[in-house]
Amino acid sequence: MNQTFNVQGMTCGHCEKAVTQAVQSLDPQAQVRIDRPAGKVDVQSTQPRDAIAKAIAEEGYEVVG
């Protein structure tokens, strides 16, 4: 299932890698696409939305909405 998250605080490539790794720690098969300027993270995963948002937040980024 495709899910889109609004994520604040991503400022560089390292941030993108951290968010990607956080999502893939839950679902190694997840596909993650990040549009850093727009603050959007698109995730193709079978994991619940709340679990993905929590994993991103635990990396220190704010998931909005």
From TrEMBL:
<dbReference type="InterPro" id="IPR006121">
    <property type="entry name" value="HMA_dom"/>
</dbReference>
<dbReference type="GO" id="GO:0005507">
    <property type="term" value="F:copper ion binding"/>
</dbReference>
<feature type="domain" description="HMA">
    <location>
        <begin position="1"/>
        <end position="64"/>
    </location>
</feature>
<protein>
    <submittedName>
        <fullName>Heavy-metal-associated domain-containing protein</fullName>
    </submittedName>
</protein>
<dbReference type="InterPro" id="IPR000428">
    <property type="entry name" value="Cu-bd"/>
</dbReference>
<dbReference type="InterPro" id="IPR036163">
    <property type="entry name" value="HMA_dom_sf"/>
</dbReference>
<dbReference type="GO" id="GO:0006825">
    <property type="term" value="P:copper ion transport"/>
</dbReference>
<dbReference type="Pfam" id="PF00403">
    <property type="entry name" value="HMA"/>
</dbReference>
